[in-house]
Amino acid sequence: MGWKFNQKEPVFLQIARHLRKEILQGKYRPEEQIPSVRQLAFEAAVNPNTMQKALTLLEQEGLLNARGTVGRFVTSDVAVLREAGEQMRRELVKGFLSEAKELGISKKELIHYMEKEETV
Amino acid sequence: MSVPVLTCTNLCKSYKNGYPVLNYLNCSLPSGKIVGLLGPNGCGKSTLMKLVSGILVPDSGEIYVCGEPRSERTNAWISYLPERTYFNTWMRVEELIAYFSEFYADFDVAAAEKMLGDLGIDTKAKLKTLSKGNKEKVQLIMVMARRARLYLLDEPIAGVDPAARDYILQTIIGNYNPEATVVITTHLIHDIEPILDEFAFMGYGGQILLSGVADEVRAEKGQSLDELFREVFRCSKSY
Fold it and tell me: B3 — phi, psi (to 5°)?
């Protein structure tokens, strides 16, 4: 049950990241309506207020649009979706690189190993 | 701001041996929140719930529920889950539903039946034939099927397996109502953390040591409530 959360970060930020990923993965298509706050809160096993906060954040980012009392819809704005995708790539690489740095692995080595791991 | 669902001012309570359990406790809870009342064993969490629900009488201090002094009238707005099961075990689940719906005007029979159905609990079963965990689930369903303004849940997840724990938490979320506030006591902080809006740490000496918004603790300290709890109660000298 529920989504997995880490201990350090505010839960609403983690929820927002989870939903952003689902949108980019295409679980929810552009112009598609996402489930209600209550449903999502139930699915994630979090407080509805926290879910609300995460959705508000995604609205501010432009990924979701609220249509009055009808609900929230995924944006069809390609620029916004592309920017969110960019952001996610940057974050992924940043985390990966900082971990590699901690282990003292050079960029050159990384590229070498990445090419060896072709199965991915 | 709307009227707080619960306000306690200078609440004192001691038991026969004279040792004060609650000592000038003050707190105020807004509506529409899920609040974790957290503290070490024996710090007075259950005592506070019993005082608010009118089972115990305070030595001094005041309790206000939705702005009114605690009374028989305010009791009707409170749905209380005690730490122990208290049902007559000869009853069948369906008889219990009838009993509750007669007793409480705000009891939602359809909601109770749906939740029982979700869990696959046979309403024809006698309570004494149910396992301990199932009995606790039935009790929680009875409490959550009321359309109360204040829910007091005393250790709702302590005695049940992790899967049932998840169900109980989802039941609490699924019944969420922006007009009502849910207070949960537990020491299984990790399990309930994602569903809490606010928390209050209660220490020995019956006072609120620390309270706040759960997500702010994470944002400001990079710490979970569970970790904060361990820290607070490690440093506290009176403990």
Answer: -65, 135
* CA end-to-end span of chain B: 35
Residue of A10, A46, A47 with shortest CB distance to B219? A10
Model-wide pTM > 0.90: no
Contact B118, B45 (CB under 8 A): no
Q: Report yes or no: A45 at the B interface, CB cutoff 8 Å.
A: yes
The predicted complex's ipTM stands at: 0.71
Whether A57 and A46 share a structural domain: yes
pLDDT digits (tens, 9 = 90+) for B138-183: 998 999 999 999 999 998 887 777 877 888 888 888 887 888 999 9
Asked, for residue A6, whether it belongs to a domain, the answer is no
Per CB-CB distance under 8 Å, the chain A contacts of B173 are 41-42, 45-48
The residue behind tokens 């849910």 is B182
Q: Are residues A50 and A23 in the same domain?
A: yes
All domains of chain B in start order, with CATH: 6-235 (3.40.50.300)
Q: Which domain holds residue A56?
A: 11-76
A50/A70 same-domain check: yes
